[in-house]
Every structure is written in structure tokens, then in C-alpha cells.
Design goal:
By secondary structure, the protein is mainly beta. Among the domains are: about 100 residues, no CATH class; about 150 residues, Sandwich (Jelly Rolls); about 150 residues, 6 Propeller (Neuraminidase). It has no helices and 55 strands. Strands 6-7-10-15-12-13 form a 6-stranded antiparallel beta sheet, with no helix packed on it. Strands 3-1-50-51-54 form a 5-stranded antiparallel beta sheet, with no helix packed on it.
């Protein structure tokens, strides 16, 4: 099939006026320039295999459906039809928008029945235009659905001219199949630098750079973090007057109280300390010989005051580990393979089985995770004093109270003591991820960490992890964005695509939150110019700023006269109106702007641009 395109769009550059609060204005007084804005034909053909996804994009169009999962088919099965390639029929409530907020024109689509037995008479398409107008059409189905090898199950449907320049295409029903949607759109120009949503922080400075293939513990003036995908094997000091790298540090632990690094060697045959450039032996397996539980290897050294707590284990069985405390040269066993650990009710339940993943310490004791010999597949967390008194904290399958009733712990993740001595545990609940806070009595607070928020200056909703702090931080793993909370509202701080100096961010991850004011965070980033190098940056947040939406120079179609105008962002929770004026005194609201994620361009038909001089702005309620 041949498809003819209109002539290419050309750029138009009017004089620029100053911004107003929560609005942006431009004046139209010029003529067309020669640089073209390209148009293109796109096709959605579902190639790539039979799989399910929350959304799919092709040539700039974004396809979603009502239940949030779109699945494709290859035409096999007793109840299937076929067109000889991959197609989609799991599409109830199909919704199609342009990823940049541009209008598009559906040209042709292949449609068919849902299956051999479920045969609707037609498919109803609904198109929405920028000014709120709605167009509809019904595509009749021929009833032929006999599967592979028979008569053609799919038929071509050509959209009428009324569907030109829609901003959203919807199909409410799901009893149909489709493939090969051809559509026409324009390739949007990149947003100018001053149209990007500005970074929302006070200052930023580089701390340390390294290869991403070298996981390290990094010790700074008020932070200690693992800068890598896996357990660190080396430790880098970036303290004032101390920038040395200590290699071969397995399970490193830094005691800020004594400014000392503790670690096991790579063979787990000894524990060491490192302070002021001097390395000393802390313990060897021989130290466990007089305890009644001689061990072959040592790991996880942790300091509590004048005592070193560590794990020892044999190499002959998974259940042969013990936790030891060494004070003034004397080593004693605190938790042994025969210690009867309590269950949720506090009564003795069973002996320990699986090695701890970690040991967390505070001023009076420690916490460790293990499973029990009676239930080896259930992960549990315990706290203990140096004298050996053990308290059950939480375990998988436990039912815990929440504000809405109860929920079940399905997975234990990381744990650590906070500055007040409470034990904070990151878990997965059957209601989502959360942080559990335990005091000396028991569970004190449940803080959901998996959330969806609508940052006021990002024009979209985002899903990610909440880090309770002052201020609260919110990070989105993909594409890599950081947000902060202020007075109950979240503001975007920094993300992939932003520039730091001349470098463009291609990766961003929140690493730690220093506690001292003013509020600062440590992030790990990578730059588009060098994807194999990781850079640790310290970001000072400062006061959040609500940036107003900003409009760029419109692109004008030389044939239709329609406008395509870049828009920097929109404010979440506000209605957005396109308003027009001839004198900058009286403003007429034309229509609400369609919401995409994010809305980056505004479409204005020629009928609204016929006066000799016009001003437009975006108003937010």
C-alpha cells in the first residue's frame, strides 16, 4: 500500500517574551523559516515474540490497555486465528497516545475477530482531538476466523479523514485482534536547553570516581556506602587527609567511633583492623578453639565498644556456624549451633541453621538473620546482647498489624540500627515494600516504601522507593530520578537526561543520606560519554523550587497552518488550560491540555491563529 505524506513542517521563531508565574507566553509576529521539521510514517507490527508487557511503543506511539498488561499471540492453539505473524488480542480498553504529546493520524490497521469462537460484528474506534472534539468510527469484521492455513482471518481497515491529528485513540472493547497499525506523525524537535525542567538542588560536587566493575566500600566524612552491584572487596577512604585505597577487604565494617576499618581477608582465615595506615590482626580461627566451638573460617567482624563480634564457621556443614565476642584478648561464643532460638511467642523454638547474611550492631548488642533447623526455608531476624540474651524480631510468614488491618511479611531484606538504637528492617509485605521499625518493646512503626507519587513539577506520576528522612527522599530506579518531599509535596531534584556541567546523566542511583544539615544526599551517576565509569556526587538539596511551565518556539505546518509548541512540563494536581489574548489584558481559555506522560508539546489548529498578533499562555488552576 502506498501512503502519501503532506509537505514537511517548517520552523517558526517568534520574538521571546518574559515568563509569568505559572504561565508562559509567546507572541506571533514573524514569518516561516526554512529549516524543516520532518514527518514520518510509523507502523506498529508487534514483532519481537509472544510476551506480555505493561506498555509498548513504536515510532513514538505508546500503547497501553485498561488492565495494564498487553500480551501478543502467534496464532497457534485450537481457539486462535492467524495472519502469519505476531499480533495482539489481549487489548481490552486499548489506549494509544504519542509519547511527546503530539497529535498523530491513524491511517490503516489490520483487524480481525478475537478467536475462532468469539466473533464481534465490528470494532469501535474513538479519537480525541486537542480541542476536546471526539470522532468515532466502526470497523466491520467479516466473520472469517478459521485459523492458520484457511481464508485470511485479518482484513484491512482505512481510517476516515476525520481521524486526522488526534491526540488519543481508544478502543473500549476487547473482543478483537489487530496488527500493523500504520500512522502518520511528525518527529518533534528536541526541547531547547532552557525548556528542560531545571535541576532542583543548591549545589553538587564530585567525591570519587571509579570503574563500575570494581565494587568498593567508600568511607567519607559522614557517610559509609557500598558503591557497586555486589559485596565490596576493597575500601576507599575519602576522608580529609586520608584518600588511600585498602585492597582485599571482605565484609568490611567501619567503626566511626574509633575511625577503624574491620574486615576479613579473601580466604576468611583471619580478621584485621586498619587505622591510620596500620593493619593489625584482630582474630584467627585459633581464637575459637578454647570456646568449645572451634571453627575453620571467620567473617563479618563488627565492633561494639571494646568488643569485636564476628561469625565463625566450619566447612563441613551448612549449619555449623557460631557468633563470637572477643574482648581484651578473650573470645567466647555467644550464639552456638546448639543455642535454642525463640519463635514469635518468645518460647524456645529451634537451633540456628543458615549462615547470617549480616550482623548489625549498636551500643549494647547486635542483630543477625538466620533460618532454624526445624524450618530451614524460613528467614528470621534476631537481636542479642553480648551476654547472649536473644529476642525474636521478625520473620517471613509473620502477620503484623498495620493502619489498615494486618499484612504478611513475605521477604526480609536489609536491616540496621538507627541513631536512636531502634532496629530498622526493610521487608516485602503482601501489600508492598515497607520499612519496619522495632524498639526495645517490639514493632513500633510500619513505613510503606514502595509508593506512587505525583511530583508537583514533573507533570507525571512516578513509582519507586521512599526513603524516610528529613526531608523524605523518593527515588525511581528506572529511568533513574530523584525527588524530595517538602510540606507534603514532592519535587523533582535530578534525573537521567539532565546535565551536570557539560555531561549528560545516563544513570542515577541514590546511595545514602548523610544525617547532618543542611540536607545532603550521595548519589552514584554515570555519564553518557563514559558508561563504564561511576561517579559519586554529593548533592546539597536546599529549598525546593516550583518551576513554572515554559513554552518554546512553535513549529508551523506550511500547508495546514497548525502549530506544534514545545512545553517544558506541567504541574501535577492542576488543571492546565491553553489561553489566548490579543492585548495581554483579556484572556480567553480555549481548552484543557491533554495529559500525557510527560506532556512535551501543545497542538494548536490554524483556526485559533488567524489574528495578526496573538498571545498564548498555559494557565494552571
Amino acid at each position: 500500500m502506498s501512503i502519501s505524506l503532506r509537505p514537511p513542517l517548517k520552523a517558526f521563531s517568534p520574538p521571546r517574551l518574559s515568563h509569568r508565574a505559572l504561565s508562559a507566553i509567546w507572541a506571533i509576529v514573524g514569518a516561516l523559516l526554512a529549516s524543516p521539521l520532518r514527518a514520518e510514517i510509523g507502523v506498529m507490527d508487534w514483532e519481537g515474540g509472544t510476551n506480555c508487557t505493561s506498555s509498548i511503543s513504536a515510532s513514538g506511539l505508546l500503547f497501553t490497555n485498561a488492565r495494564g498488561t498487553i500480551c501478543s499471540s502467534n496464532g497457534t492453539g485450537a481457539n486462535s486465528l492467524s495472519n502469519g505473524s505476531i499480533f495482539a488480542n489481549d487489548i481490552t480498553g486499548l489506549r494509544v497516545i504519542h509519547q511527546h504529546g503530539l497529535p498523530f493520524t491513524p491511517v490503516q490497521i489490520e483487524v480481525g475477530e478475537y478467536s475462532r469462537t468469539l466473533k464481534a460484528a465490528y470494532v469501535g474506534f474513538v479519537g480525541y482531538k486537542a480541542d476536546g472534539a471526539v470522532v468515532t468510527v466502526q470497523a466491520p469484521l467479516d466473520g472469517i476466523a478459521d485459523g492458520p492455513g484457511g481464508a485470511p482471518d485479518f482484513q484491512n481497515f482505512v481510517f476516515p479523514a476525520s481521524f486526522e491529528n488526534i491526540v488519543r485513540l481508544e478502543v473500549p472493547s476487547g473482543s478483537w485482534s489487530f496488527d500493523n497499525l500504520f500512522f502518520s506523525t511528525v518527529i518533534p524537535p528536541p526541547l531547547p536547553t532552557d525548556q528542560r525542567l531545571g535541576a532542583n538542588y543548591r549545589s553538587i560536587k564530585s567525591i570519587y570516581s571509579k570503574s563500575i566493575h570494581s565494587p568498593q566500600l567508600v568511607v567519607g566524612p559522614d557517610y559509609v556506602l557500598n558503591s557497586g552491584f555486589s559485596a565490596p572487596q576493597n575500601t576507599k577512604f575519602v576522608l580529609p587527609g586520608n584518600t588511600r585505597l585498602v585492597e582485599g577487604t571482605r565484609s568490611p565494617h567501619y567503626s566511626r567511633e574509633t575511625s577503624t576499618l574491620y574486615y576479613a581477608n579473601s580466604a576468611s582465615t583471619a580478621l584485621f583492623s586498619h587505622v591510620n595506615g596500620v593493619t593489625s590482626t584482630v582474630a584467627t580461627p585459633a581464637d575459637t578453639s578454647a570456646t568449645g566451638w572451634p571453627m575453620q573460617a571467620l567473617d563479618l567482624p563488627r565492633r561494639i565498644g571494646a568488643t569485636i563480634v564476628f561469625m565463625g564457621y566450619t566447612k563441613s556443614g551448612l549449619d555449623q556456624f557460631a557468633l563470637f565476642a572477643k574482648t581484651a584478648g578473650v573470645t567466647r561464643a555467644v550464639i552456638t549451633p546448639q543455642t535454642s532460638l525463640p519463635g514469635p511467642t518468645g518460647t524456645p523454638l529451634s537451633t540456628p541453621f543458615w549462615f547470617p547474611n549480616d550482623i548489625a550492631v549498636n551500643a549494647t548488642g547486635f542483630a543477625f538473620d538466620t533460618s532454624l533447623a526445624s524450618q530451614t526455608g524460613v528467614h528470621r531476624l534476631y537481636s542479642a546482647s553480648l551476654e547472649g540474651a536473644v529476642r525474636y524480631v521478625v520473620g517471613e510468614n509473620d502477620v503484623i498489624p498495620t493502619a489498615g488491618g494486618t499484612t504478611t511479611v513475605t521477604d526480609l531484606k536489609t536491616y540496621a540500627f538507627n541513631a536512636t538504637g531502634e532496629l530498622e528492617v526493610n521487608v516485602t509485605l503482601n501489600t508492598g515494600d515497607a520499612r519496619l521499625v522495632f524498639d526495645s518493646v517490639g514493632l513500633r512503626q510500619v513505613i510503606p516504601t514502595a509508593r506512587t507519587v505525583a511530583p508537583v513539577n514533573a507533570g507525571k506520576t512516578v513509582s519507586g522507593m521512599l526513603f524516610p528522612a528529613n526531608p523524605a527522599l523518593f527515588t525511581v530506579p528506572s529511568p533513574g530520578e530523584l525527588f524530595r518531599e517538602s510540606e507534603g509535596r514532592f519535587f523533582r531534584v535530578l534525573g537521567v537526561g539532565d546535565k551536570i556541567g557539560t555531561e549528560t546523566l545516563s544513570y542515577l542511583e541514590l546511595k545514602t543520606v548523610p544525617s547532618s544539615p543542611p540536607a545532603r544526599v550521595i548519589i552514584e551517576v554515570r555519564y553518557a560519554s563514559s558508561s563504564t565509569m561511576a561517579h559519586l556526587l554529593e548533592v546539597e538539596l536546599g529549598d525546593p523550587i516550583l518551576h513554572p511551565p515554559r513554552l518554546g518556539a512553535p513549529q508551523v505546518h506550511p500547508e495546514s497552518g497548525d502549530w506544534f509548541v514545545p512545553l517544558s512540563h506541567t504541574t501535577a494536581g492542576k488543571a492546565r488550560w491553553l489561553a489566548r489574548s490579543n492585548d495581554l489584558k483579556t484572556w480567553e481559555r480555549l481548552w484543557t491540555l491533554p495529559v500525557t506522560s510527560p506532556l512535551q508539546h501543545v497542538f494548536i489548529p490554524r483556526s485559533q491563529t488567524l489574528a495578526p498578533t496573538m498571545f498564548f499562555r498555559v494557565e494552571e488552576d
